[in-house]
Structure formats: C-alpha cells, structure tokens
Amino acid sequence: MDLDGKLIGMIHLPPLPGAPRYGGRMTEVVDVALRDAEALSEAGVDAVMIENFGDAPFPRGPASVETVAALAVTAARVGRSLDIPFGINVLRNDGRAALAVAVAAGGSFVRVNVLAWARLTDQGIIEGDAASLLRARAALGATGVRILADVAVKHSAPLARVPLVDEARDLVERALADAVVVTGPATSAATDLDDVRAVATAVAVPVLVGSGVTADCAADVRRSGAGAIVGSAMMVGGKPGSRVEIARARALVEAWRSAR
Predict the structure, then answer these.
(1) What is the C-alpha to C-alpha distance for residues 32 and 14, in angstroms, rounded to an integer?
(2) Contact 76, 45 (CB under 8 A)
C-alpha cells in the first residue's frame, strides 16, 4: 500500500476476550467493527486501522493468544466487507501479533508504537525489537505489509533525550520502518506541525500525523505533506473509544480533500 498522503480512519474495538471489561459476546465486537468500517468507507477515507483500544490496561509484552485470535476473526470480517486497505495495531506494542493478524486476514499495514529505541510508559519500560519483526515479516513472505513506526510515541517518555529527527532517521535507516508516525503527547492531543515538517525533511519515507487531527486543522496537516491517522475526531462526541459518527467523518474527509 502506498502510504504517502493517505487518510486512515481508526476502528477502536470494544474490549476483547480476556480484557477486564470484555462484555462476553464476540458477535457484538464484530458488529461494532463492521458498522465503524462501513461508516469510514462511506465517508471516503483511504484506509482503516483496527486497534484493540478497549483492552486497557495493556500488557507490556506480547498480547494474549485470545486477543490475537479475536483480532484475527474481527479483521477478517472487516476485510471482507471493505474495498479499501486495512491495517492492524496491537496495543501496547505487539508488532509481531499485528503482523500475524495482518497476514492471516489480508491486512496491508501494521503500526508499531516502539519499533526501535526504548520508552518509559504506563506499562513500564518498552524496548523496540525491530530485528525480530523484520525477520518474521521476511519469513512469512509478507514484505508487502507496510510497517508504520511511531517516533517519540504518545503516552510515553524517553529514557534519554534524543533529537526527534535523529530518532526518526534511525527508525527508517536502521529499523527499516516503511513510514513514520508523529504524534502529540497523548490520544487526541494536537501534533506540532513543525515536528512533522522536520521529520519529513529528515526521512525518505511517508510521514503521518497520528493524533489531534480534526476537521479544523485537516487541511493544514495535508498541506504539510503528511498523511494522517484519525480516530477521536471521527467518533461520537470526539471521544476516543466511541463509535464512528458518519457526519463527523464526512466533515473531516471533506476538509482533508479540500487541501488539494
């Protein structure tokens, strides 16, 4: 999938089996995902990304087998319902699980919050492991599944101060990320477009804004040359973890397209 300048809409799944707040019915999880996917597709996004947002608190290490199974089932159903690409993010940082789900369900990309370096998070210290993920992708014959990697990922702090552009360069040149995601400090927080432009100048891969994109700023983001991953602003009340609201999604897509 070509990620350059793309608008990706988020599907924040309800809690999955094994999560503390799981409601006990996988059919409801799948139905929610299908409704959100239909709304996003109808609104005109370029792709969607499925994420186990409702599973908090998230594990520091690998996702549980029940989480991976539930994501694979849901992603396969969503993929069959769409004629646009989809991707997977497994929180907090299980790129290997995301890759497995994408390969099994026909996904085009995965997002990995900490692909390289290390970050202090509410789950503890998370260390990147690009080597394992890239080797697994090669072994699965899945080099077409793109890897989106966060730089200075939200909801975390560095263990040592590293200039943003240096971290971004390492993500691409040493960890082999296919695209770089720049965010604000937290979910829905605005992303500094000066940071976006600096990263875009430093790397030769697509750059996406990963938080804080709204209908009001969508045109500015697009004119910066970046793509965008949008969740909260397309959801009911602008609240992360809620359902996609078609009117909000259409308004944001219209603002995005107007910047051509």
Answers:
(1) 8
(2) no
Cα 134 to Cα 122: distance, rounded to the nearest angstrom: 26
Task: Return the domain boundaries, the chain.
Answer: 7-257
pTM over 0.70: yes
Reported confidence tier of residue 84, pLDDT bands at 50, 70, 90: very high
Residue 163 and residue 195 in contact, taking contact as beta carbons nearer than 8 Å: no
Tens digits of residue pLDDT in 136-154? 999 999 999 999 999 999 9
Residue 248, preceding bond cis, omega within 30 degrees?
A: no
Architecture of domain 7-257: Alpha-Beta Barrel (3.20)
Over residues 42-54, mean pLDDT: 98
* Cβ-contact 74, 29 below 8 angstroms: yes
Task: Select from 140, 122, 206 the least CA-distant residue to 168.
Answer: 206
Nearest residue to 77 (alpha-carbon basis) of 34, 44, 36: 34
